[in-house]
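All the exercises in this workshop are built on plain-text protein records. Sequence and backbone structure share a record, each on its own labelled line. The question running through the whole workshop is how a given chain folds. The record below serves as our worked example for the rest of this section.
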Amino acid sequence: MLRYLTMNSNYISGNIPLDIGNLVNLMELHLGLNLLAGSIPASIGMLKNLHGLDLHNNKLSGEIMSTIGNLTQVAFLFLSFNELCRNIPANLKKCQNLNELNLEYNKLTGGIPKDIFTISTLSINLGLRHNLLTG
């Protein structure tokens, strides 16, 4: 039963497999510092036991998956240094265990959802700089 998958700092390229959501016992997924491209699969939202997601410093594009709110156990979410665009999903407010959220150096637009500030545990790091946010 796989609980931790750490493959940071390699030259992994291509897309994140759509069936990543089948790893239902996964608690941490570390794929940062690679060459992954394409969008973040919505199936990551099926990883209900996930406590940490690290996809920073890749070439991921598109919007942050709408299923992000399903990750209610997640404590850290690192998506910085990618090419993610559009709005920060409002359902991120469902991640009430979130301590660290880093979305820096992307192409996110729109405003910061006010409900993000209702996450009482989000006290360690909230990184939003170097985007195209307004408001």
